[in-house]
Structures are given as structure tokens and as C-alpha cells.
Specification:
By secondary structure, the chain is of the alpha+beta class. It is built from 3 helices and 3 strands. Strands 1-2-3 form a 3-stranded mixed β-sheet. The radius of gyration is 13 Å and the shape is globular. The N and C termini lie far apart (about 35 Å).
């Protein structure tokens, strides 16, 4: 399998794990394919393989999501959708 397939599977696994943690707050995140591809690309390093993936997910998803939750931007039952920004340089999220 090509490395991007392995990384994409790792992304899906990490997002599934994050959704399990968010289920306690009755929240769900969804990622479109562009967002997944972005994470796969950012989370792969030729020297380290997929090891950087977890840090990328923390920096790109978990940290901004935590701040949004603290600000009350999402409430119980919300689905939070992540996608690639228009410039292709980062992720954006909302309802």
C-alpha cells in the first residue's frame, strides 16, 4: 500500500478515537476527504513515517477545538465539520 493510504488509515483511526472521547459531551466531528488528505500530507515525514501524525492532529484539530469548546461555540449534540480552507493551507471548522 502507498504511504498515503497508511497515513489516511491512521488519520481515520485517530479521528475515530477523538469521536469516542467527544461522545462524553455528545459531540461528533466529521472530516471531509480534503481535510483527511491534508492531515495525511502534514502527518507524514520521510524520516519518521507516520509518527508526527498524532502531533499534527493535536495542533490542527484538538487544540483549536478545545478553545472553541471553552468559548461555548458548540453545544451538546453538535456535529463539528472540518474541511480544508480555501487556500489549502489549513483546516477550518464549524457547524
Amino acid at each position: 500500500m502507498h504511504w498515503t493510504g497508511n497515513i489516511s488509515n491512521g488519520c481515520r483511526h485517530q479521528i475515530k478515537d477523538l469521536n469516542r472521547r467527544l461522545a462524553v459531551r455528545d459531540l461528533t466531528i466529521q472530516m471531509d476527504e480534503a481535510a483527511m488528505a491534508y492531515l495525511a500530507k502534514k502527518g507524514y515525514d520521510p524520516s519518521f513515517g507516520a509518527r508526527p501524525l498524532k502531533r499534527v492532529i493535536q495542533r490542527e484539530i484538538e487544540n483549536p477545538l478545545s478553545l472553541a469548546l471553552l468559548k461555548g461555540e458548540f453545544v451538546k449534540g453538535d456535529t463539528i465539520r472540518f474541511t480544508l480552507d480555501d487556500a489549502g493551507q489549513g483546516l477550518v471548522f464549524g457547524h
